[in-house]
Amino acid sequence: MELTRIIHPVGQGGFYSERLVDGSNEINVIYDCGGNNNTSMREYLDNYYTQRTIDAVFISHMHDDHINGLEYLLTHYNVKCLILPQLTKDEHLEFLLYNALKNPTGVSGINSFINKLLSSEDYYTESETKIIRVSHSNGDDRIGEEIVGDYDIDLLKMIKMTSIKSGVKIHLGKEWLFIPYNPPINSNYDKGFYNFFKGKLKINYDFEFEDLIDIVHKEGLKKCKQIYDDYFEKNHNAYSMTLFSGMASPHLYSDYCDCCYDKMIYHHCGKYRRLCSPNCLYTGDFDTKNQFKNLKYFYAPYWKTISSIQVPHHGSRNNFDPQMYEYASRGFISVGEKNRYHHPNVDTLIGMHGMCCNPVLVTDSLSTIKLYQYHI
Fold it and tell me: HSE of 359 in the Cβ direction (CA atoms, 13 Å)?
């Protein structure tokens, strides 16, 4: 089997693809499909991603910069399966309100798409794409027979399913698998965000999500943003579904290497590290700072074999825990060249270097595209 992994140069967003070829069989998988804006994503897909059949698309969360190319992808490409995190009412509202506050003039399109997508049952209404939802972890489960049990499915047969559990092993052949993790429902707050938002605006009825734009327009962006910040305390990235992509047999990792710089890190640090693994962890905007222990516990049987990590939230300091990079030799960061958030944060870069993990920046410049190839 041959694996080609591409970190696409979409700037302040997330778009990652893998192509696995086993003999005459070719499988294409995508994690997230968003970038600086809708127009640039459509142009990029047409010009630089010409593969029209896509077997599976995994989406971390519904923020605009991670999905603003998804609607175009679903309607112009043959996408067989779309794997989404199962959402609570609070999460649904958070995504819509975040998008509305971030881009009030152009948000109606992306939020209408989200509502259409989440209201679809088995198939997306505008295409024949099967929708599969990943349930929230209960907080105590992890990969392995001790707790989750032997729950395996085949990637090519997954189209028959409507829901799967966090921790399911999605197999591709004998040697490769994907493992999604939808974090536990956030229980840090006494009230749900939906009820909190209603209470602050003195709304005495259960409004439909389609009404949100009108509510925000009526009440005012400034007031709604203050309610949003009061509830989330400016840390709203707790709802990202992660994805492990790697070898089914962790002990086989040591035969593979595609980056000489990894060896330089090894000699410089002078400590044992799994340098040559093709295994990767995609994180979206995962709340690593507050949920790292749960993430590591969940992926425990594979954790030390993960060589590449997508650095969450574009290298934000608020989503950084240095222990996440203890075994990884590479952390790739999707970031806009001139983004207003000043990502990646310098403390994140210093912290990664301190753990002997090489930060790899992929911006909106085509020259920064990263392509990794492995023979498995």
Answer: 23
Cα 241 from Cα 150, distance rounded (Å):
21
Those residues whose C-beta lies under 8 Å from the C-beta of residue 67, and which sit 6 or more positions away, are 32, 33, 34, 59, 110, 113, 114
Strand (E) or helix (H) holding 298:
helix 288-298
Q: What is the pLDDT of residues 197-218, one digit of tens each?
A: 999 999 999 999 989 988 998 9
Please provide the average confidence, as pLDDT, over all residues in the chain.
86
273 pLDDT above the threshold of 80: no
Residue with token string 């044992």:
272
Query: Which residues lie below 8 Å from residue 159, measured CB to CB, with a gap of 6+?
Result: 80, 81, 130
Percentage above 70 pLDDT, the chain: 86
> Residue 293 has which token pair?
């222990």
Q: Which two tokens stand for residue 153?
A: 């499915």
Output the six-digit token pair for 228: 């949003």
Q: Is the pLDDT of residue 336 over 90?
A: yes
Residue identified by tokens 């509510």 is 215
> Which two tokens mark 318?
């608020």
Residue indicated by tokens 């070719």: 26
Does the bond joining 344 to the residue before it have cis omega, within 30 degrees of 0? Answer: yes
Tokens matching residue 13: 């967003």
What is the C-alpha to C-alpha distance for residues 140 and 340, in angstroms, rounded to an integer? 38
- Residue 215: in which H helix or E strand, if any? helix 212-219
- State the Cα–Cα distance between residues 110 and 203, nearest whole angstrom: 25
Q: What are phi and psi of 332, to 5 degrees?
A: -95, 140
Torsion (CA) 275, 276, 277, 283 in degrees, nearest 10:
50
- What token pair was written down for 357? 């993990």
Q: Which residue has the tokens 């709203």?
A: 236
